[in-house]
Hints:
By secondary structure, this protein is mainly alpha-helical. It contains 6 helices and no strands. Mean pLDDT is 84; it is low at 1-13.
Amino acid sequence: MDDMTTETYDETYDDGDTLGGRITRARDLAGLTLEEAASRIGVTDETLSEWESDRSEPRANKIMTLAGVLGVSPAWLISGAGDAPQSPGISLAVDEMTGEINRLRELAMQITTCIETLETRLVTLTRVAND
């Protein structure tokens, strides 16, 4: 057995970022400017900037609003627990790959059917030739 250990993470896993860092990351991935996000959240640009730079923290009700506007869970914003937001490019790539995998599976099924048909015909031809 090797010296490597396998770490498992539960919902208390800390992603190593701060609340402000997570707010900034989620806002960037949501494609919102500081001004747009602040407007949707109902705070000034300066207030959001202070949250993002960890100079102050939002109240609980604003955490809920932030999470909704940024498309993340409040738990992730506060602690980094759970799924982090993904880049839209990653989501699109995953969808494209899933489609390609499904297409290849369909082609594999068609190939299998063709092989089985050819094998059946070969057996029939072999019997006719041997009779």
